Amino acid sequence: MIQKISRRKFLQSTGLASGTLMLGVQFSPLMAKTTTPNSFQPDVFVSMDETGQVTIISHRSEMGQGIRSTLPLLVADELEADWNRVTVKQALGDAKYGSQNTDGSRSVRKNYQKLKEAGAIMRTLLQQAAAKVWSVPVDQVRIENHQAIHQDQRLDFKELVKIASTLEVPARDALTLKTADQYRYVAQPNMANIDGHEIITGSAVYGYDVELDGMKYAVIARPPVVFGTVKSVDSTETMKVPGVIKVVQLPALTPPAMFKMLGGVAVIAENTWAAIQGRDKLKIEWDHGANASYSTQDHEAVFIKALEDPQEVVRSRGDMAQAQSAAAKTITADYHVAGLAHATMEPPAATARINGDRVEVWACTQTPQASQRNVMGTLQIPQENAANVEINVTLLGGGFGRKSKPDFVAEAAFLANETKLPVKVLWTREDEIKHGYYHSPSYQKLAATLDAKNRVTSWYHAMVNHPISATFDPSARTAGSTDLGQGDMMFEVPNIKIALGETDTFMRIGWVRSVTNINNVFAASSFVDELAHAAGQDPKDFLLQLIGSDRTEDFEADGFKYSNYGEPAAQYPAETSRLKHVIELAAAKAKWGQELPDGTGMGIAAWRSFLTYIAVVVKVSTQGNRVKLEDVHMAVDAGQILNPDRVISQMEGSLIFGASLAFYGEITAKNGVIEQGNFDDYQMSRINQIPDVHVHLVDSDAIPTGVGEPGLPPVAPAICNAIFAANGQRHRRLPMKDLQLV
Amino acid sequence: MIELKINGQLTKLDVSEDMPLLWALRDVAKLTGSKYGCGKGICGACTVHIDGQAMRSCITPMSYAQGKSITTIEGLAEQGDHPVQQAWQDLKVAQCGYCQTGQIMSAAALLANNPNPSDADINGAMAGNICRCGTYPRIRAAIKQAAKANKAGAQS
After folding, report:
1. Considering CB atoms only, which of A193, A345, A688 is closest to B99?
2. What string of H, E and C letters represents the secondary structure of A662-717?
3. Which CATH superfamily, name and number, covers B2-75?
4. Which CATH number is correct for B83-155, 3.80.30.20, 3.40.1390.10, 3.30.70.890, 1.10.150.120?
5. Distance from the A274 Cα atom to the nearest Cα atom in chain B, whole angstroms
6. ipTM of the prediction
7. Do A197 and B89 touch (CB under 8 A)?
8. Are residues B33 and A217, on separate chains, in Cβ contact within 8 Å?
9. pTM for the whole thing?
């Protein structure tokens, strides 16, 4: 639905690019349907009309990572299109684009090749068309900046469209793709930002901002405990609120939770305020159900017991008992990380309209196809009518995994269908915090042995949390994600045991930016620092030695079924040399080892996650329980970098996201009810607490990988290791509630 | 009927006196540039100028806004080229962008009152605006750039 050309480009293409003139045109989110069909579309991602205007499809959701700019620029670059003659059109949810699920830090990784090919297919056809016009061999035609060139002859793309559209689409393996040194737009330091002007003028349309004719506003009183139900509802007072139109009860949620609606009672009104007031006046008697037995604090004892002798061993090397008996030193430590909510600045929101047998939806969703399936499931629409469910993707005011769970989209579709009115469902902040898909609280036990020379001879890491899989299969009792920050450790140790404890689950658990890497890498990277100090060695040198020789990790050899983020190990090997390189780079840039004043210290942590290698060095100063982040250096090896500025911004964001969870992030339940509700009791770091973040990109020709998540895992342990270096206090529990971030 | 000035236009809105200005702007006046983030005045996404002062529209009732002059992001600069907006563009401050209209309104009010803010001044004026994506370093840099641009503009 987001279809527009940037203001700058519009002005340039109309010859009005003075930089001072503002058009009074607002590009409405609803304009997409008025587009004239393009005549030439050799690939689903790219088409051209007879004026030579190119339309490039953005099939991934934009939530701050810049993907609506980066990928279309890549297509335009391969095509040799003039960016001023490119329109970016946001895709509807449609399987023809392949997966549109914008999570897992995979938009670039999964689409890089096929989008280069999309651009190259069109470029090749235009080249062939020009060769035909001039009756010259194809290889004598050059394509450059929207033109075909042969000697002193030039033809604009618009003059070639018709002929090109009659030619046979070339095979993908016959294409010549650009090499990195041939890019015109990609990998430049100051690449175009398609949504920049709309964002700063307030005209950008997020899920919260969708407006339809006759649209009503809905807020929902959801069961305070997951799987709770409505015993009775009295809406007398609600209906007296001016502007309230209707009260609608939603069907109760039954396990598994999946992406289904939570149930409860919706208040539909003429505006959001009336709906909120009406909701406040509902008198609902709830049956809280079985999950009311759950309290986070009490459950900690269950976690601890679960790790006394965890039975599920996922990675095993050598002989742990032998290492134990031969050890000069044994070191153990336990780590706790609290539950987390996504806290996207824009809470979930979706708008739906029933139009005959069609369902039209506008939503800030990371996953339009799953949204479509979810709407079909909710309204019992058969598969053969999938095309009747249209999912328009707005901009997302943050995602972090919350908006890849389209429960809120189902709510909008359900209410629109019940009322036959266009309905926008708005989650308030309290709704977002109290009814989320949480990052689970976790508990971890680490143990290691050192020999007489302070070499690590064994490594043990056990973890228990409420598994994400329980959201989809209530019988699941162990995390299916040892791949994320636990089993995938790259330390050269002769004896290894990685294990999982079991527990039941009482909330909806979901993935939050970098998933279990958050807690696993915190524990593992804190523990490495503890070992370094136990060995009396510099933590950076110790970390490098622990990673050891240059090699490609062979996880299979330890019986570990490592998913490698869904990619073949041969194509994306886990290389210790790359991990060591980012450590050395971050340390050098941070001037690691320099003399620091009393109360000041540096900490380091590094991990490969989402196939990207990242090291973080943090400098803190401490005074009593006050901690100040003084300086941060992050080194990133993400293979080829397509949009350097957006990679840097993702790292800046990761540092700040990490600081929030390290000092504040804690979701707890009491009697099944989430105790936090807004930014007063679920706090975020603020501008006065955040230093400049220095990001160092490794120049690499490796296949590009993602950057949305991997910056986060090493942040919290780097902070904690720095605090230890500063004042000797080891923090093994997040958030660090006894400290004050200043 | 409540009368107030929005972005220079005298406007009458048929809303209750207790409706927060934010919802009147968004749902009734259809100016959706001011964002909802918390509803309690603690995140700053809804920041507008009321008689020139940065205020949280989500906790400002219409009874207070009545008769006052409101500037929203849509009216900050007719052409969207306020020095703060320009600096935001130049430094590519925004990530998801959702909080940025509130950030810009807070920053613009800061510079209007204090053309040459120190780091401490910036922290003081901006600590009420949360950005979850983590754009704080660029916000700080952009405010300094806008301050410089203002100064250069005043001298020329």
Report:
1. A345
2. HHCCCECEECCEECCCCCCCCCCCCHHHCCCEEEEECCCCCCCCCCCCCCCCCHHH
3. Beta-grasp domain (3.10.20.30)
4. 1.10.150.120
5. 8
6. 0.98
7. yes
8. no
9. 0.95
